[in-house]
Amino acid sequence: MVKPKLIDENGLRIDGRRPDELRKIRMEVGVLEKTDGSAYIEVGGTRIYAGVLGPREVHPKHLELPDRGILNCRYHMASFSVDERKPLGMTRREIELSKVLREALETVVFLDEFPRMMVDIFIEVIQADGGTRTAGITAASLALADAGIPMADMIAATAVGKVDGTLVLDINEVEDKYGEADMPVAMAPHLDSIVLLQLNGRMTSGEIEKGLEMAQNAIKKIHAMQVEALKHRYRIEPEGMET
Amino acid sequence: MSLGMEKRGYAIKIMKNKVYDLLKIGKRIDERSLDQLREIKIVTRVVEKADGSALVSLGKTKILTGIKVEVGSPYPDRPNEGVFTVNAELLPLASKSFEPGPPDERAIELSRIVDRCIRESRAIDLEKLVLIEGQKVYMLYIDCYVLDYDGNYFDAAVLSAVAALMSGSLPVYRVIDGRVELAPNDRMKIPLRTPPVSVTMGLIGDKIVVDPLPTEEEIADTLVTIGIDSDNVVAAIQKSSPGLLPVSMLKEMIKLSLVKSQEIRAKLLEAVGNGR
Amino acid sequence: MIYFTENELVIPGQLLADNGRRNGFGTYVRHGKIYASTTGLARVVNGVVRVIPVSGRYKPQRGDKVVGIVSDIKPNAVEVDISGELTAVLKPSERESTPLMIDIGDCVYAEVKTTGIRGTVLSNEGLQRITSGLLVTINPAKVPRLIGKKGSMVQILRKESGCDFWVGRNGLVVVSGPNPSSEFAAVSAINLIEREAHIPGLTERVIQLLRKLRGGGSGQA
What we know:
The structure holds 3 protein chains of 3 kinds.
Chain A: E1 25-29, E2 37-43, E3 46-57, E4 70-77, H1 92-106, E5 117-127, H2 132-146, E6 156-163, E7 166-169, H3 173-178, E8 181-188, E9 193-197, E10 200-201, H4 205-233
Chain B: E1 2-3, H1 13-24, E2 40-44, E3 52-58, E4 61-72, E5 83-90, H2 105-120, E6 130-132, E7 136-148, H3 153-167, E8 169-176, E9 179-189, E10 197-204, E11 207-210, H4 214-219, E12 222-228, E13 234-239, H5 247-272
Parallel strand pairs in B: 5-7
Antiparallel strand pairs in B: 2-3, 3-4, 4-7, 6-7, 8-9, 10-11, 10-12, 12-13
Chain C: E1 9-10, E2 15-17, E3 22-23, E4 27-30, E5 33-36, E6 40-45, E7 48-53, E8 65-73, E9 78-81, E10 87-90, E11 107-116, E12 119-122, E13 128-130, E14 134-137, H1 143-147, H2 152-161, E15 164-167, E16 172-176, H3 180-196, H4 202-215
Parallel strand pairs in C: 3-7, 10-12
Antiparallel strand pairs in C: 1-6, 2-5, 4-5, 6-7, 8-9, 8-11, 9-10, 11-12, 11-13, 14-16, 15-16
């Protein structure tokens, strides 16, 4: 495998983007019928369905908590979502990401508003092209809002990477594979706080700061798209709105 | 609106007779007639990384199938045939009655029914999938994911698997000096003979309902799925529910399924296009 | 200062108000400011800022009439499934000498007596056991439309379909009529209401549908 050139002479990336440019993003809310809330997201070639079930009674019952609710999160990739077929069953990576994503979402969900109940979040990756955990949590946040789960804030996310020495925003799969570092960041935009942060690779503290700044700006844009997607979903006067 | 409630451990006593009474006047709880299919939507090539893919909606039931191709060894007793396997997963977000975890008996049954329809109808021309006889053949992994469940994942799964095969393509390998080498940028159609389709029916009393809803599946005396190839020959049958199936009813069901399969096949060909 | 407009959809985390107003359902307070905690329409009612959620999930309130299915009978309580994910209970009263004549799988219509952190309890008084009918599940957010102002819509449904209706605030509705044809008409009307609740002229369309379906006569296959 030959490492491709990730930044060309014009400073453009392998897919023609500028370092601070996001891929094309599409979001839709309320795409599945049997979930209590759902969303679909495309970020470049990454495509993900997110679904929320709940609040509902806890199974098995002995796991229920008397004073607050439980959040479960499952991040899962379809076998055909990646270049080399992924065998069935949860891999170690999926288990780790399920935990990290759950903890990020738990940060903003008001668990004490549904004691003795649980909320299940399902993130199903049907095609992976880099940034699946960040696109996944962005969609999960929309699905939670669609399901009416009480939260302190929405969550929007993106990944910053370093390729051929340059900091770039929203890395795709090739950049992830051959770059020097990748840093997924998820934030609660109104709270101006980070809820998910990981770093894989080597970055100086200056690069991390600059990277976070790039991420923050991008997250503002992604959050604005979330608001649009929710407004579009509920554009007809919602019923049952008697006061 | 849905009728009844999602699957629970106890029967909904007040419903069963009422549903049957409606059937006697030719009506179903979602206003369809007894032999009417729900709206079918088929979209192919939805996942570019997959070698073939199709998203099928049957009413509100939604299934996404993707195909991945690898090169591997044939079965020892079939050295001149390619290999395919079918897997199905009932994703927990599709229904509150699906638990996360390894495929349960329902998922395994579904995958085997889809497999049977494709295998027994000889839909895939397995002999054209051989690279080096006895050593290297194409291996097709057909994986079906139920994304949304509103009854009858059987027919939706068969349809999405077949649509994915029909619209999919294989990487081309050349055999040079006994070695198999990938010819980059070259693709070929998956060699298919016939697109099979399936028709699932529920028996409620002496009434047969086609393409059942979850409540109908729950109330039915039994469910039967019939797979049919394009020569109008039955290739697979599965009785997938406990309960009595009178022989006369089965005969009716087979007749009905032959008629309905034409309708489904027409939809399939329309979506996938003649030349594929 | 209020930071939202009347018909604007607000989303979790959005700033709604400051300057020490009172906050109600669907909101939370941080550093003296009120933020939305749920997606919906924000309103100020009697000086209280609250958000009416878009999601139709049912939350039991005292006094609600609900339809449920008896799911289990335990020594101290009868469990009633009121939405497929919420279970309420009926507690036998100490004063009752005869136990409630209830079986698993029975359909009941009852009032919510209490609800809270310990669960939901249904009242034994006025409990109705529904022996037969078609059980329909609709989005709980549409129930007010199905009932209508002061019960006007459900009255029309009863009159034009000839059926009995038990409408649960939890979105479960039972329809029972003299023949399958009228029950079918009733179910179709409920379907229409759920689909087109937001389109004006609904009442007229419901009446027309019911007349058309019943006019076809009963017993026609």
